[in-house]
């Protein structure tokens, strides 16, 4: 989608604010180069866009993780909307670390806990 509010058409790429598509691309690349993260089999949920206004404080991207018991969880990576691409790139290892923690936590849970989690999610879902 073209950004018609962008009045500086040729900024340095690293100075540009990241958008969701760019965040997914960079994060997917970083995940693909980390064998531990590859093993966790995270699926990018590119249709999971919660920011329809483009004015949120954080740009979030989402990854799904699933278990054989058919429990699935949604994990997220977020970047401050006032960060540049260069800054996001620098923060990426830390963000991936958090993503990995969330994913490993999900994988370590036994399926009783997964079921418990599903019941809780159903309770809060509308
Ligand atoms: Zn399970």
Q: Give the biggest beta sheet.
A: 3 strands, antiparallel
| Helical content band | 40-55%
Question: How widely separated are the two ends?
Answer: 30 Å
Number of H- or I-type helical stretches = 4
Indicate the radius of gyration in whole angstroms: 16 Å
Spans of at least 5 consecutive residues whose pLDDT stays below 50 are none
Fraction of residues in β-strands: 15-25%
Task: Write out the strand line-up for the largest beta sheet, numbering strands in chain order.
Answer: 1-2-3
Secondary-structure element order, N to C: HHEEEHH
SS elements, strand count: 3
- Ligands, deduplicated: zinc ion
Count of individual domains: 1
Structural class: alpha+beta
The overall pLDDT, averaged over residues, is 86
| Overall geometry | globular
Plain-language structure description:
The protein has 126 residues and is an alpha+beta fold. It has one domain (20-124). The chain has four helices and three strands. Strands 1-2-3 form a three-stranded antiparallel beta sheet. The longest helix is centred in the last third of the chain and has 24 residues, at 85-108. It binds zinc ion (ZN). Zinc ion binds next to helix 4.
Give a quick summary of the entry.
With 126 residues, this protein is an alpha+beta fold.
Features:
126 residues; alpha+beta; three-stranded antiparallel β-sheet; globular
Indicate the topology.
Blueprint: H1 20-32, H2 35-39, E1 43-44, E2 58-66, E3 72-80, H3 85-108, H4 111-124
Antiparallel strand pairs: 1-2, 2-3
Helix pairs in contact: 1-3
């Amino acid at each position: 989608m073209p950004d018609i509010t962008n009045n500086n058409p040729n900024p340095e790429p690293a100075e540009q604010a990241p958008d969701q598509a760019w965040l997914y691309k960079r994060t997917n690349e970083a995940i693909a180069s980390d064998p531990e993260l590859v093993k966790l089999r995270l699926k990018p949920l590119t249709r999971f866009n919660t920011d329809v206004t483009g004015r949120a404080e954080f740009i979030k991207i989402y990854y799904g993780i699933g278990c054989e018991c058919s429990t699935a969880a949604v994990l997220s990576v977020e970047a401050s909307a006032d960060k540049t691409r260069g800054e996001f790139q620098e923060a990426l290892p830390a963000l991936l670390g958090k993503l990995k923690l969330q994913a490993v936590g999900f994988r370590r849970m036994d399926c009783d806990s997964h079921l418990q989690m599903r019941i809780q999610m159903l309770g809060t879902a509308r």
